[in-house]
Design a protein that fits this description.
The complex is a heterodimer of chains A (728) and B (147).
Chain A lengths: L13 H19 L6 H11 L15 E3 L5 E5 L8 H13 L6 E5 L4 H4 L14 H28 L7 E3 L2 E4 L4 E4 H9 L28 H5 L15 E6 L7 E6 L1 H4 L4 E7 L2 E6 L2 H9 L2 E5 L8 H12 L7 E7 L11 E7 L11 E7 L2 E6 L4 H12 L6 E5 L15 H13 L5 E4 L2 H5 L8 E9 L5 E10 L19 H4 L3 E7 L15 H18 L4 H12 L2 H14 L9 E10 L2 E10 L6 E10 L6 H21 L4 E2 L2 E2 L17 E6 L17 H13 L11
Helix pairs in contact in A: 1-11, 3-5, 5-6, 11-12, 15-19, 16-17
Chain B lengths: L1 E4 L2 E4 L8 H8 L18 E4 L2 E4 L5 H4 L3 E3 L9 H8 L9 H14 L5 H8 L9 H12 L3
Parallel strand pairs in B: 1-5
Antiparallel strand pairs in B: 1-2, 3-4, 3-5
The chains are: A alpha+beta (728), B alpha+beta (147).
């Protein structure tokens, strides 16, 4: 991607480079395309990646469960806990099959080791595409059931009773008839001698006592409320130095001239040196590093930098979508014969989206030490395997020699999942220069974080639609302009939510293309990725089509879903309409807007109540219906929907990173406005009952809110929305 | 200089112009107070100075001298806000929550029975990117014993 974030000096070996590309492809193909058969390849590659790795001793109950003498059942979480509450769902799956006492269940982070802790679909260790629960469902049920069977077998031997007469409840193994019972702790040594069964019997979901109940709650609420949770920012190690980096003011800029003499004289500053991504100041504490950085005198070389402004880029994107530039479109869905399908009267709409920052509360940071070929990282890793590979390239070592202790993240929303490991490699480069295994904490200010790129890419969508007499689409032309988030393969992520949408399925002719301009601004993964833009385009367009056909928006969608046989969307639509009182009167000045979108296998519908009284756009209530397969942790499903609505709403109302001659203008929360408490709507979450394999919940709450608000505004004012944010 | 933090007099011999936030975090090993924005826009670094909520990123060490400084570490483990926060499973990523609780504690000290409007007015300077606002509000009302 951008030169300003590439690895330092060292020439990567061709083998490692190739491996990185292949694995990067596995990650995104595997994570984001359901059913991609990466598993076998992943197993081989993961083995190769683990050479030199710290051994993971799986213990008697396997790599996901530890049970100790105090009776604690510890579930090992291989995913990043960045707020999405994954740990609670994972722990519940294990505890359910194990019949453990929920109060005695806790969790800890897995070490980085793809051979043991890769996600079975992604083929590598990492967190993305709201996949943690879906990717663990079979594996963790089996792990829990196998451990339970070991305790039952141990009790059967000890009591000389048949195993099938022995039961387990809340961590107590018992035989009802003889009134014998022992705890997991009592039986621990005996159970450890039993070979785990290969195919343990799993529970019938009708017997679940924990899964799907309000008993399943977060395990970290206390430590995250009383200030004791340890984040990357809080790490203190003996001899640790704190680093800040001066970065080029433009994307693609380079160091021109540097005068570090004043910076070196700042008390507390230990060293100042150039690295690939800028100029590093290493100091005894954060404030000294900050003062040292402020004292640097730097001229940047912007000869190859991006110096265009957002307005110019927006105009360029519109030209690209019209096919008027040398950026050619690649088809991502075609159906039927175009011939004269788009002759005659067409509906046209276009949408502009700005760059958006992820802006998690904890700015990017990392702790690294480099001792020869050993690299040790302590930070909130999100895609451990990719980080290991990128850091190995930077430090000229093997990925397995890059040890990662994963801490919880103070938010990520995709920012910690960048495929270049930008800030992590930066920290490794600094620690390598410091050397001797001395730990260095890289601290980014909010301004560093917000102007670092890896934004949700700017995008433009243009649609041309022909409808039948009933107003339903019969021909759909769709052009998307967006940078590629993954720098190889098809530019697929921005097409998510458009490709194979029911609105395209109902049409007999589809002509959908994506245009991929190349810019030095690094694009990144932003919670729900392409879906957050495509939901706005598809759901607002459908409301406009319904209005054109003088049909009720819910009834119009119902007609399409019925025609294409999308039974899940039909059920979720009916649920949300019922709970929101769709069609019933609202008080004067308020209107409802509806949107429904499938994201990473989960369908979410939202009805927003909106007003523009007094010129202020207000959203007071959002009713949500969700089909995420079988619900594991309903309280956390609600939390993710509540949070997703706020995240998506703040972005839709205010979010934008504006480039002025290439320089990001919004670099802190004074200019980058986000949702605050007085603007947060009441969110109601209704979960559609399902017996299907669970799907994700961390991201799918985000996409529908922008179009739900746009559709309510359409109903209130009659005016369509063609760009975000709503409030300029 | 001496800084009175959570009832103890602590020695600090660094730069008197260092923001209190970094004194607490880097020098007094009190890392519950978080760095979020550095310009008093997000509230993650909220502490109490003489009982009033303040953004520690924008108060210099010298200015805090002679004041009673209270951080999240100085909040009693059984405090009704901490209990309510856990009861409502408020945190997601959790990074902003100690600042939220310090802000809420100052609110309840001033207005033991806050209205929704009081809560909005007091809490809207504290950003939560995970969007836990409604649970924060519910937890404050629960702790205050208002419906």
């Amino acid at each position: 991607m951008s030169e300003r974030k590439s690895g330092e000096g060292a020439q990567p070996s061709p083998v490692l480079t190739r491996r990185r590309l292949v694995l990067g492809g596995t990650l995104l193909g595997g994570a984001l395309v359901v059913g991609y058969a990466a598993t076998n390849f992943g197993a081989v590659a993961a083995g190769a990646l683990s050479v030199g790795a710290v051994d993971v001793n799986p213990g008697v109950f396997g790599p996901f469960i530890k049970i100790d003498e105090a009776g604690w059942v510890t579930v090992i979480n291989r995913y990043q806990e960045m707020g999405q509450g994954t740990h609670a769902g994972l722990a519940a799956i294990v505890a359910e099959e194990l019949d453990a006492d929920w109060e005695m269940v806790r969790f800890e982070s897995a070490p980085a080791n793809a051979a043991v802790y890769r996600d079975v679909t992604m083929g590598i260790q990492g967190t993305g595409a709201s996949h943690a629960i879906a990717g663990s469902w079979d594996q963790l049920r089996q792990a829990g059931a196998a451990a339970r069977a070991m305790f039952v077998q141990a009790a059967a031997r000890k009591w000389s009773l048949p195993a099938d007469s022995i039961d387990v409840r809340n961590g107590i193994v018992y035989h009802l008839a003889s009134r014998r019972s022992e705890t997991f702790v009592d039986l621990l040594a005996d159970a450890a001698k039993i070979a785990p069964p290969e195919h343990p019997k799993l529970k019938d979901p009708k017997d679940y006592k924990l899964i799907g109940t309000e008993i399943v709650r977060r395990k970290d609420s206390q430590s995250k409320s009383n200030g004791t949770e340890l984040y990357t920012q809080d790490v203190r190690l003996p001899g640790m130095l704190v680093a800040m980096v001066a970065h080029p003011s433009h994307f693609g800029g380079k160091l021109g001239s540097l005068d570090m003499s004043a910076a070196r004289k700042v008390p507390g500053v230990v060293d100042v040196f150039e690295i690939a991504s800028g100029v590093a100041v290493v100091a005894k504490d954060t404030w000294s590093a900050r003062l040292g950085r402020d004292a640097l005198k730097i001229n940047w070389d912007d000869a190859k930098a991006e110096t265009r402004s957002s307005d110019e880029l927006r105009a360029l994107y519109r030209e690209i979508a019209k096919g008027k530039t040398d950026v050619t479109g690649a088809a991502f869905q075609t159906k039927g014969k175009v011939d004269d399908a788009f002759d005659g009267e067409l509906f046209e709409a276009s949408f502009d989206f700005p760059y958006l920052a992820n802006a998690p509360m904890e700015p990017m940071n990392c702790v690294a030490s480099v001792d020869g070929r050993r690299v040790k990282l302590t930070f909130a890793a999100q895609i451990q395997t990719v980080d290991q590979i990128n850091c190995a390239l930077a430090a000229i070592t093997l990925p397995g020699m890059v040890e990662i202790e994963t801490l919880p993240a103070g938010g990520s929303f995709g920012r910690r999942g960048t495929l270049t490991s930008d800030y992590i490699v930066e920290c490794v480069n600094i620690a390598r220069h410091v050397g001797g295994g001395r730990p260095v904490k890289l601290v980014w200010t909010r301004e560093d974080d917000m102007s670092s790129g890896y934004y949700r890419p700017m995008a433009h969508h243009k649609v041309f639609i022909k409808c039948d007499e009933g107003g339903l689409p019969i021909a759909w032309r769709h052009n998307i302009v967006s940078q590629a988030i993954v720098p190889f393969g098809a530019n697929e992520l921005p097409t998510h939510g458009v490709k194979n949408s029911p609105y395209l399925s109902v049409a007999s002719v589809v002509d959908a293309k994506i245009f991929t301009p190349k810019l030095a601004v690094p694009p990144g993964l932003w919670r729900s990725v392409g879906n957050s833009q495509s939901a706005m385009v598809m759901e607002h367009t459908v409301d406009l089509l319904a209005r054109r056909a003088k049909r009720d928006p819910a009834e119009y969608r119902r007609a399409i879903f019925t025609k294409v046989g999308d039974v899940r969307k039909l059920a979720v639509l009916d649920l949300v309409c019922k709970k929101a009182g769709w069609g019933s009167p609202l008080d004067a000045g308020w209107a409802r807007g509806l949107a429904i979108h499938e994201c990473f296998g989960t369908v979410v519908a939202q009805v927003a109540e909106v007003s523009v009284l007094g010129g202020n756009l207000r959203v007071r209530r959002v009713v949500c219906a969700v089909d995420c397969g079988m619900a594991i942790a309903p309280n956390q499903i609600a939390a993710q929907i509540e949070g997703g609505v706020c995240f998506g709403l703040g972005a839709a109302l205010y979010g934008r990173i504006t480039l002025d001659h290439g320089i990001p203008q919004e670099t802190n929360f004074d200019a980058y406005r986000v949702l605050r408490m007085d603007e947060a709507p009441a969110v109601e979450t209704h979960i559609a009952p399902s017996k299907k394999t669970p799907t994700g919940i961390g991201e799918p709450g985000v996409p529908p809110i922008a179009p739900a608000v746009a559709n309510a505004l359409l109903s209130l004012t009659g005016r369509p929305t063609s760009s975000l944010p709503f409030v300029i | 200089m001496k800084l009175n933090v959570n009832g103890d007099d602590r020695d600090f011999d660094g730069d008197p112009n260092m923001p209190l936030l970094w004194v607490l975090r880097d020098h007094l090993n009190l890392s519950g107070t978080k760095f979020g924005c550095g310009i008093a826009q997000c509230g993650a670094c909220t502490v109490h100075l003489n009982g009033k909520a303040a953004r520690s990123c924008s108060v210099l060490a010298a200015e805090a001298q002679g004041m009673k400084i209270t951080t999240i570490e100085g909040v009693n483990a059984g405090h009704r806000l901490l209990v309510a926060w856990v009861k409502h499973d408020v945190p997601q990523c959790g990074y902003c929550q100690s600042g939220q609780i310090m802000q809420a504690a100052a609110l309840l000290d001033e207005k033991p029975k806050p209205t929704d409007a009081d809560i909005d007015a007091a809490m809207s300077g504290n950003i939560c990117r995970c969007g836990t606002y409604r649970r924060i509000k519910a937890a404050i009302k629960d702790a205050a014993g208002v419906a």
